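Appendix B. Raw example, untouched.
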Amino acid sequence: MKKFKLNLFIKILGIGSASGLIYKNDTLYIISDNSNYLYEYSIVNSALQKHLLIENPEINENVPKKIKSDFEALTQNGDDIFIIGSGSTENRQKMIQMSEVQKKVLDKHDLTDLYLSMQYFAGISAEEFNIEGVIFTGEKWYFFQRGNGINTKNGIFTIESPYFTQGYSLVYNSYDLPKINGVQSSFTDAVLVDDVIYFLATAEDSQSTYLDGVVSGSSIGKINLKTMKLKNVVTITEKYKLEGLTVFQNNPKTIEFLLCEDADNDYQETQIFKLTIDK
């Protein structure tokens, strides 16, 4: 994974502060941490559609920090797309379940009890709790805790039940991620490819899950799914805060990913990058 190539793939007008994405059949599904929409972008004809996740007649884009749902994680299993809040404040504990085919919200889940259990189990304070990536296999959930608080607690919660609201077993693995230019990096997203978890980590000079800081760069790493052991991490940029990760093409010797940038501003423009790495 030492060899990589990172290029700008497309720019999309109409989306700001992108935090997660899924690629499927020439379509990108994108979420923003300050928006109440799931965005659907056609790569073929550059058409952008918006699907409302939460009814808010006052404001649905560039939602103020104090009241936003902070949708940071996006995952899919079958026809169902799951949009998950970070849990970093009380109003950020929602999970929206949407049908890709019907383009409508199927259910809204309150993750308050689950997030409290995670905090207690891993010894993470409410101030440092911050979920920024989720993988759902249909049988297990993997929640990625971003360690951008004072104690830099990066970790993965594994929930061994497809219906965690009705009882579940919980496992937690902690990780020491490398620094980028002297700044601690922390999980920002992840995706499963075969038996390997590929994850993004960003170094942001802030000890707060709430306040943004100066970006020192982003990296990609690998974790063995069976052992949950960290394999290696490679810095891919010293400029961009990359928060979304999805598979574009899985080739015999290489993998192409698409990544989205969270520029932490109110501009309605999103940069999507293509990353090619050796397996």
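End of appendix B.
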